[in-house]
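Input/output pair, single chain:
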Amino acid sequence: MRRLLTVLAAGVPLAAAVYLPTASADTGSPASASAPAKCRSVPVKAPAGTRVESVTAVRQPGGTVTGTGYLKGTVYDVPSYCEVTVTLTHPGEGDHAKVRTWLPEKAGWSGRFQAFGGSAWAVGDNNPGLANAVKQGYAAATTDGGVGDAVDSSWALDGKGKVNTSLLKNFAERSQHEAAVVGKAVTDAIYGKAPSYSYFNGCSTGGREGYVEAQRHPDDYDGILANSPAINWADYVPATLWPQVVMNEEKTRPTDCEFKAFNAAALKACDLNDGARDGLIADASRCDFDPRRLIGTRIDCDGKTETITAADAKVVRKIWDGPRTTSGKKLWYGLPIGAEFKGLAGDMPFTVPDDWTKKWVAKQPGLDTSKLTYSQFTKLFKQSQAEYDKIIGSDDPDLSAFRRSGGKLLTYHGQADQYIPTAGTVDYRERVERRLGGTHRVDDFYRLFLPEGTVHCGLGGQGTDLAALTKWVEQGKAPGTLSATLTNASGRQVERDLCRYPLVSHYKGHGDIADADSFRCVKPHRH
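Output:
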C-alpha cells in the first residue's frame, strides 16, 4: 500500500490533476445556456441492456469539494450545482453502477458536457474532476461502474473464486458508454437543451477508457482527451511484472541508488540527441546507451561506496529491453530509458499488474508474483492475452468510424512513464496509421505528443491539452504543438512546445535552453 502511494502521488492522482485544465476564452465558447431553474429528479431512459434502479437529485451548495477514497484531493470555490445520480443494473447480473451528473446552477452552463475516466481500479472520478468541470461551466458526469476505489480489486473474483465477468465488463468498457448516454440525457432533461459539445477526459485507466470510447462508441464524444493511456491492457499489464521476474531469476536486486546511476549515465550519453545539454532525453526510444558500460563504476549511495556489477547491468538491460520468452521472442516493450525504476522494480510488485496476474489471470489471490520464473511469466502473459484481449485489450486500430463521426482524439504520453511503457502507445498509433492511410490522414483526427522527461500522467493540470482539444473540435484548429513546462534532471523547469508525433524537438543552436523558442520540431532522422 505504501508503494501505491508513490504511484498515486507521481502518477495516478495526476489523473485527477488533468481535470484542472480549462478551455480558455480564445478557444471560443458556445453561447451560455440558462442555469437550471430547479434541481429535480428527471425521467431517464435506460441504456440498452440496462435497467434504471433509481434516480435522485440533490442541490449541492458547492464551496469546498473533497475527493473520496484513496486519491482524495480538494477543490475550492465550487459554485452550487445540481447532482443527479442514476443507478443502473444489468438484469440478472447483480451489479449496481452509479452515474453521477453535476450541473452548475449559479455560474451558468457553457453548453458543454464533460465525462471523466478513472484511475487504477476505479472506473470513474472521485469528485475533483467533476468539481473543476463545474467551475468551468461544464455539465459533468462520471460512473463508478459498480466497482470500488482506485486501490480496491476485491471485486475481481466472486464467492466461488471465479472471475466476476459482469464487473469486468463494466470496468473494461460498457459503464463508460452508459455514463455518456445517461449523463447527456440528464443534461438535456435538466436544461431543456442537449449539449453543444461533448468531451471525455481521462488519464491512465481513464486514458484507456477514452480509447475504448473512440474504438467502440465513436458517436459518444466530439473530443476525447486520453493521456498516458493504459491501452493494450492484456499485454502491457502483465508485462510490467517483468522487472520483478528478471530480478528474481537473476538473483540480483539493484538498489534504487544503483538504478538511478544507470539512468544518470543514460542521460549523460543521450542528452545531446536534441542538440542541447538540457537535462532531458528528447527521444528516449533512440537512446542506445548500453548499461554494461557502467560495470565496475563506483558510486556513492548514502555515504556508502557501491560498485556496479555485471549482474546489475544485466538486470537493467533486460528491464529496458522488455519481456521475452525463454527462447528470446519479444513479448512486449520494456521500461523506457530514463524512467524511474522503483515503481516496477521496487521491493514489492506494483499493485495493478500484481492484482491482475494473480486474480484475473491465475485466479490465485495468494500467488507471489515476485517469485515467478521466466517460463511461468511467459505462460501467464500468453494466458492474459488469450483470455482478455477481446474484453479489455482496447487496442483495435480501426478508428474509421470515429473519424467519420468527426471526433478528435488527443493524447500525450510521457517518455519517462514509469508504469505504462510509452512505446505501447506509439505502437498503437503506428498501427492506426497503417490501417487508415498514413500519418497525415490520421493527424486529421488523432494526434499524439510525447513530452520528454515526463512521468505517468505528469502534465496534469497545465491546461493546454483540454484547451487545445476544444479549439480543435469547435474551431477546427488542430494543435501543431502543445505548450508545456517540463522539469529536467537537475530540477530546473524549462518551457517546451511539444511536437506532435512523429516529429521530435531539436535545439536551433542558439538561445536559452529553458526557452521553448530555442527549439523546433523536426523529423527524427535529422538528429
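The two ends are 43 Å apart (CA to CA). Residues 148 and 409 are 28 Å apart (CA to CA).
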